[in-house]
């Protein structure tokens, strides 16, 4: 039986070392999960989307090119697309249900605990939470985060700056 993880350990023409999918998955699993947790605000949904992300990544592993970026950035790009697909599907489902039920009470518990910081993070717009997750939590550089978000470097930097300023203001208000 052929090993499903059988991938050349070096890239042909350049001789660059290429890690195995298992090694990348093991080292980046927590980072991708934290990113999805910040995007969704829901632990169980983040776990489901993390599984979907790594399934898609496994299927696309042969196309991963370490010359184009880090495995973390590649995985976060896949995670973002998986999350956006989920949000779009959820929006369609909600519209369908709304036609029949007219009003759904959806209670979503905060995924990152309780307290003033958790409350402040929850009050950020989804786009602000996402840029904070990429830049602060996952420590991606500005150009990589901007590319993942599909925005310019300047827009990414501005969004991060505004989000951090809002967090700072909310935290200082909470202390008073």
What does this structure look like?
With about 180 residues, this protein is mainly alpha-helical. The chain contains seven helices and no strands. The protein has helices at about 20-40, 45-60, 70-100, 115-125, 125-135, 140-150, 155-175. The longest helix has about 30 residues, at about 70-100.
The total domain count is 2
**What's the CATH first level of the largest domain?**
Mainly Alpha
Shape: globular
Unreliable stretches covering 5 or more consecutive residues: 1-15, 103-113
Helix content: 55-70%
CATH topology of the largest domain: Rna Polymerase Sigma Factor, Chain: A
Tell me the fraction of residues in β-strands, as a range.
under 5%
Helical run tally: 7
CATH architecture label name of the largest domain: Orthogonal Bundle
How much is the radius of gyration in Å?
19 Å
Tell me the structural class: mainly alpha
SSE pattern, N- to C-terminal:
HHHHHHH
Largest sheet: none
> What's the count of strands?
0
Mean pLDDT, rounded to whole units? 81
Separation, N- and C-terminal Cα atoms? 65 Å
* Name of the CATH superfamily of the largest domain: RNA polymerase sigma factor, region 2, helix turn helix motif
């Amino acid at each position: 039986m052929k090993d499903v993880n059988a991938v050349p350990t070096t890239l042909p023409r350049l001789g660059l070392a290429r890690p195995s999918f298992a090694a990348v998955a093991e080292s980046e699993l927590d980072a991708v999960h934290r990113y999805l947790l910040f995007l969704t605000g829901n632990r169980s949904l983040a776990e489901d989307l993390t599984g979907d992300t790594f399934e898609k990544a496994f299927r696309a592993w042969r196309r991963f090119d370490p010359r184009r970026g880090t495995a973390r950035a590649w995985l976060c790009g896949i995670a973002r697309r998986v999350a956006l697909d989920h949000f779009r599907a959820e929006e369609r489902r909600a519209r369908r249900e709304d036609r029949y039920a007219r009003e759904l009470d959806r209670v979503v518990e905060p995924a990152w605990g309780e307290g003033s910081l958790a409350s402040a993070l929850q009050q950020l717009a989804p786009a602000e939470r996402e840029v904070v997750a990429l830049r602060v939590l996952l420590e991606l550089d500005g150009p990589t985060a901007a590319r993942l978000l599909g925005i310019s470097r300047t827009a990414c930097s501005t969004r991060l700056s505004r989000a951090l300023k809002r967090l700072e203001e909310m935290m200082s208000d909470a202390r008073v």
